[in-house]
Amino acid sequence: MKMKRKIVLGISAFFLTLFSATCVFAGNVFPVATVNSSASCPSTPSYYDPNFCSEFTPVAICQCEEKASPGWCSTPLQIYTNMMMMFHTIPASCDWAIAHGVIPASDREACIDRWTCFKNGGSPDGHACQGNGNPCV
User: Fold this and answer.
1) d(CA 22, CA 13)
2) 68, 89 in Cβ contact below 8 A?
């Protein structure tokens, strides 16, 4: 009986921790907006730009730090990892950002294209990231 109680308590603690982490992460992880949310952040580059990765990094970090704690935003890879942990897909991450007013609905495809380019080297519409198809990570 004690073993069964320990198992139930362990499982309960796991799900409580998972739920708590989900609530914390959901408020702190977001995709990058096409339109600047602040004049202090650089403009979001086009994924066609040969300098996409180097220009995307400061934009992603700046926009993340405006919405989240700086510890969540040290690199675009960290931001991407947090997005995937919370939302599991790039489109779901972008949809969450739209639903919470982080990016306008008109930026959904651009959001998906930029994060897909960042991670995979190409956009869902078949265009090569940075003109060469190389991912940023």
Assistant:
1) 14
2) no
Q: Are 103 and 33 in contact (CB under 8 A)?
A: yes
Mark out the alpha helices in the chain (DSSP H runs).
2-26, 52-67, 76-87, 90-99, 108-120
> At 122, which amino acid appears?
G
Residues in the chain: 137
DSSP letters for 79-106: HHHHHHHHHSSHHHHHHHHHHTTSS-GG
Digit-by-digit pLDDT tens for the chain (137 residues) are: 565 555 444 444 444 444 444 444 444 455 555 544 555 788 888 888 899 999 999 988 887 887 777 678 899 999 999 999 999 999 999 998 888 777 789 989 988 999 999 999 988 778 888 888 999 98
Sequence ranges of the domains in the chain: 46-137
